[in-house]
Please model this.
Amino acid sequence: MGIVRKVRNFFTSKAVLPEVLDTYRHRIPERILVQVAFDDQAKRWVAKIELPNTKDYLCTESDTQDDLTDMVNDAVMTYYDVPTTYVSHLAHFQNPLASKQNKHEWKLA
Model:
């Protein structure tokens, strides 16, 4: 197989490569701080995600608290450029509490 074909297959392959998966696993933080609030007027959950070792933060929103957990995970995976092919193979952050307003550390589970 020629080098051009190998390179093309590498970039177009949908296979999950263990060494690439490890790279993404080490890229995402083990813990994040998430401030969650319920907007009574808009009837929506909102989250501010503080990332470690950076001054960056992300914001996301959802209709339900369960969906908000998914949105937080999606925002973090997007921020760290994790392709969708690899997302399902990585641990995801879990919301430790279910209350209308809190700021807690979320850990990978």
User: Anything to note?
Assistant: The chain has one domain: 3-107.
